[in-house]
């Protein structure tokens, strides 16, 4: 019985070690929140702003997440005439309505797929400026 218990513990330890030690936990996608927002371009800050956040998406079973902001995350908007968005460390992801938009503007977060990679991962959200 003691040998059986020791064998079970060794097998469990081996599975944990090989399962966790060799899993590829690189960034596979992004999540952006909120998925949609509205702001008033005539209001004073922060009423004319919306804050967007990007989070890493990694494979199931990964204990740690990939770092989103480490690799040079950038934000862009589809209507830079009426909306600006910050890539500064202080207010990263803060969109400011400069004018009324005709419908929703696409807000896009982009990060390299891996450190030093030329491939990128993107995710979008929507912003309406009234």
The CATH superfamily turns out to be: Cadherins
- Beta-strand content bin: 35-45%
Query: Order of strands side by side in the largest beta sheet?
Result: 2-9-8-5
Mean pLDDT: 78
Radius of gyration: 21 Å
Distance between the termini: 73 Å
Q: CATH topology, what is it called? A: Immunoglobulin-like
Shape label: elongated
Low-confidence stretches: 1-20
Question: How many E-type strands?
Answer: 9
Structural class of the secondary elements?
A: alpha+beta
Total separate domains: 1
Any guess at the CATH architecture? Sandwich
Question: Helix and strand string, N-terminal first?
Answer: HEEEEEEEEE
State the helix count: 1
List the helices and strands and how they pair.
Blueprint (H helix, E strand, L loop, with lengths): L1 H20 L7 E5 L2 E4 L9 E3 L1 E5 L16 E4 L5 E3 L8 E4 L7 E8 L7 E10 L1
Parallel strand pairs: 2-9
Antiparallel strand pairs: 1-4, 3-7, 5-8, 6-7, 8-9
How would you characterize the overall build of this protein?
The chain is an alpha+beta fold and 130 residues long. The chain has a single domain, classed as Sandwich (Immunoglobulin-like). 15% of the residues lie in helices and 35% in strands. The chain is built from 1 helix and 9 strands. The strands form 3 sheets. The chain has a 4-stranded mixed β-sheet, with no helix packed on it. The protein has a 3-stranded antiparallel β-sheet with strand order 3-7-6, with no helix packed on it. A two-stranded antiparallel ribbon has the order 1-4. The longest helix has 20 residues, at 2-21. The protein starts with a helix and ends with a strand. Residues 1-20 have low confidence and may be disordered.
């Amino acid at each position: 019985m003691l040998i059986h218990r020791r064998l079970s513990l060794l097998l469990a330890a081996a599975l944990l070690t090989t399962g966790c030690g060799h899993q590829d936990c690189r960034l596979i996608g992004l999540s952006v929140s909120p998925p949609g927002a509205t702001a008033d371009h005539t209001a004073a800050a922060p009423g004319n702003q919306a804050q967007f956040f990007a989070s890493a998406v990694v494979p199931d079973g990964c204990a740690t997440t990939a770092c989103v902001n480490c690799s040079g995350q950038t934000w862009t908007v589809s209507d830079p005439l009426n909306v600006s968005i910050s890539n500064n460390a202080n207010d990263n992801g803060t969109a400011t309505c400069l004018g009324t938009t005709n419908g929703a503007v696409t807000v896009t977060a982009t990060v390299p797929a891996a450190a030093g990679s030329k491939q990128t991962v993107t995710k979008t959200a929507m912003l309406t400026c009234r």
